């Protein structure tokens, strides 16, 4: 009997009448077909400086171009990879779904596109998502190259990925349990509050001072919308920032994306090993 569902048109994130989870489920079906695995366990979104983690977690079992998966697009930012990978988590028999890039809010593709990766991760069976980024630091003691756990966030984008009367509790959005696991890997890890601005321009010194008054320790252009959508989809969230530069006004040096990319490359070996070790613990934790 022919599979008429396979012939149905792929739902689009651009159609406001479409349930975005339908697109996520369509994407998850393609990932399952291309990877030969019906489910994945942990998803990772790799920001600037975190790209080596996928190589260190375990063997890459399949690589998929983003453009081959419904709802995804090629990488739009230097230093990111336009592919996703299915990676074995050591010898545990579990799999990580590793995204080499993310869609940023400033790209103008809409909030649905920004959070599509985490919704797809949930549809693919993941119970945990690790969100990483490169960011500006407000604390002078956090030199470029310092990884920092995200304990909470300020969403300064003036939008939400949640549509309709769906009220999501964000009290413990960034899992304390997962942060404890991360500190078991590296007891020196500090933590702080991350503030997301819309971008793509960097924040002004006055905006950085405002964020600090509001309680921020880190500023960047990603992560908070993804974290909200992840919680709404039932995922446990671990957030880790890499301080790639001092935020505007904290130092006298001007900001540049080249600086961010260079700091990310310099920190990549340490951050990749750290993230791989954390994911290995997550696998052991879930398997226990």
UniProtKB/TrEMBL annotation:
<feature type="binding site">
    <location>
        <position position="222"/>
    </location>
    <ligand>
        <name>phosphate</name>
    </ligand>
</feature>
<feature type="binding site">
    <location>
        <position position="203"/>
    </location>
    <ligand>
        <name>a purine D-ribonucleoside</name>
    </ligand>
</feature>
<feature type="binding site">
    <location>
        <position position="245"/>
    </location>
    <ligand>
        <name>a purine D-ribonucleoside</name>
    </ligand>
</feature>
<comment type="pathway">
    <text>Purine metabolism; purine nucleoside salvage.</text>
</comment>
<feature type="binding site">
    <location>
        <position position="48"/>
    </location>
    <ligand>
        <name>phosphate</name>
    </ligand>
</feature>
<comment type="similarity">
    <text>Belongs to the PNP/MTAP phosphorylase family.</text>
</comment>
<dbReference type="InterPro" id="IPR011269">
    <property type="entry name" value="PUNP"/>
</dbReference>
<keyword id="KW-0808">Transferase</keyword>
<dbReference type="InterPro" id="IPR000845">
    <property type="entry name" value="Nucleoside_phosphorylase_d"/>
</dbReference>
<dbReference type="GO" id="GO:0004731">
    <property type="term" value="F:purine-nucleoside phosphorylase activity"/>
</dbReference>
<protein>
    <recommendedName>
        <fullName>Purine nucleoside phosphorylase</fullName>
        <ecNumber>2.4.2.1</ecNumber>
    </recommendedName>
</protein>
<keyword id="KW-0328">Glycosyltransferase</keyword>
<feature type="binding site">
    <location>
        <begin position="102"/>
        <end position="104"/>
    </location>
    <ligand>
        <name>phosphate</name>
    </ligand>
</feature>
<dbReference type="InterPro" id="IPR011268">
    <property type="entry name" value="Purine_phosphorylase"/>
</dbReference>
<feature type="binding site">
    <location>
        <position position="80"/>
    </location>
    <ligand>
        <name>phosphate</name>
    </ligand>
</feature>
<dbReference type="Pfam" id="PF01048">
    <property type="entry name" value="PNP_UDP_1"/>
</dbReference>
<comment type="function">
    <text>The purine nucleoside phosphorylases catalyze the phosphorolytic breakdown of the N-glycosidic bond in the beta-(deoxy)ribonucleoside molecules, with the formation of the corresponding free purine bases and pentose-1-phosphate. Cleaves guanosine, inosine, 2'-deoxyguanosine and 2'-deoxyinosine.</text>
</comment>
<comment type="subunit">
    <text>Homotrimer.</text>
</comment>
<dbReference type="GO" id="GO:0005737">
    <property type="term" value="C:cytoplasm"/>
</dbReference>
<dbReference type="InterPro" id="IPR035994">
    <property type="entry name" value="Nucleoside_phosphorylase_sf"/>
</dbReference>
<feature type="domain" description="Nucleoside phosphorylase">
    <location>
        <begin position="42"/>
        <end position="279"/>
    </location>
</feature>
<dbReference type="GO" id="GO:0009116">
    <property type="term" value="P:nucleoside metabolic process"/>
</dbReference>
<feature type="binding site">
    <location>
        <position position="134"/>
    </location>
    <ligand>
        <name>phosphate</name>
    </ligand>
</feature>
